[in-house]
Amino acid sequence: MPTPDDPELQHVLKHLRQTSRPPLLVGGAVRDYLLNKKPKDLDFLISGSEISEFETTMAELADALNLNTVRPAAFPEVIRLVNRDISLDFTFISPETVTENLMERDFTVNAMAMNPVTGEIIDPAGGKNDLKHKKLRFVRETAFQKDPVRIIRLFRFQTELGFTPDAHTRQLAKKGALLLNKPAGERIREELFRILANDNGENAISEMAEPVLTALFPALAAIRDIPQNGYHHLGAFDHTLEVTSWTFRLDELASRLGTTLPALADEDKIILRLSALFHDTGKADTYSLNESGITTFKKHQFHSANHFLDDIARLKPSNRLMERAYILVRRHMLFLNFMLNGYSEKSFRKLINMMREDSRLLALLALADKLSAKGPLSNGSADKMAEIVRKFIKTYKKEAETIKKLPKLVSGEEIMDTLGLSPSPEIGKILNEIAEKQLADPAFSREQALKIIEKYRQKQEDASQ
């Protein structure tokens, strides 16, 4: 095939012409070039007999391109050249191990190499044919055992490339789900959050649910067999998946509301979809039958919020993301209270001031929750909820600029630092009190907010004595 006409690649090659063996372009970069896409990063194999020659070549290239050199401690054969705009990975190998290197990769579509000078493709696993048919296959049956994160990556590629895992690969991924307790949580987070941030991730999350997500999140596994009451047509687990599916259909939610929705950033989408996954996990703890034999889940939202903190901690997301999602899960029943007990513009404004820009996420979660409850007792409740959310969003749009101008006097992180707490109901309680004071009096100051925190700190000290 023709060589890629990529200025960045040609710039690198220009400075490598003098090496005895031209580098081989490998992995995702080859896949992207074959799909006529510009790769985000460029990965190369450089073969030779002496690693010292490789190191000299890399030093000269770094100097010529004005790049910084990174040498991963765990991989002495890898040198990474980077700056703010470019990342180039070079791996030193012996000439006879090129095929072996490719066969150790995750998927066939990533197991190709290209001579960027001649355009020749090395394709030992049949990746080019799988690329043509938009198919995802593990290179080897043991690929996920070497690195279980590849199981999550399979569904990430399904989402981002629009490719379909073949039946055997899907079976292998599910078979290996229990191995997901081994990799570092940060690596799992990177793959999973890219799926959650992508509006095309609905099918992947549905397919991952059992047993991949249940292996990652024990609280989800715990609601597998929890039945629900007559307001629901699905058990707790399947209801959770349907709610989560709705959060991927933002345009359809907007259509239901007959309005446009404020654009959501990637982090907003991750938080909304994580909240949907965990919003009813507390039903495993709170399931009971009342005197009339009706299923109830009293205060399940508080248990759900705590389960979220317990299960998400391993992935080590930011404190801000945890705090925002925790509050959404904990408050996801507030719109049901509006439906049962009434609402006013004042009550809307109070909630908006407490939730700030996350007001829209809470409203969307509430709507998705009701759209997923179609039991015989639901009696048009989804339409009623849509009407409440429509009015709430209208108030939000009207108040948004005013709310934005109100300074955020303290953050959850600041409260946690001051009181030495992890994310907990106490944080939300303090933030609520400060928000109510600020709503009542826009001149309410940071100094006054800090006095409220000090009051709680003093109570904490008194209780410990």
Description:
It is a single chain. This protein has 465 residues and is of the alpha+beta class. It has four domains: 7-133, Beta Polymerase, domain 2 (2-Layer Sandwich), CATH 3.30.460; 136-216, Hydrophobic Seed Protein; 223-399, Hypothetical protein af1432 (Orthogonal Bundle); 406-465, no CATH class. Helix content is 56%, strand content 8%. It is built from 24 helices and eleven strands. The strands form three sheets. Strands 3-4-5-2-1-6-7 form a seven-stranded mixed sheet. It has helices at residues 7-14, 28-34, 51-65, 98-103, 127-132, 143-146, 149-161, 167-175, 185-196, 202-216, 218-221, 236-247, 250-257, 266-278, 283-286, 300-312, 319-330, 334-341, 345-355, 359-371, 381-405, 412-419, 425-440, 446-464; strands at 24-26, 42-47, 68-70, 78-82, 87-93, 113-114, 121-122, 135-136, 164-165, 287-289, 295-297. It is globular and about 75 Å long. The model has no long low-confidence stretch (mean pLDDT 90).
- The name of the CATH architecture of the largest domain is Orthogonal Bundle
What is the total tally of β strands? 11
The CATH topology assignment of the largest domain is: Hypothetical protein af1432
What share of the residues does DSSP label as strand, in percent?
A: 5-15%
Mean pLDDT: 90
Radius of gyration over alpha carbons? 26 Å
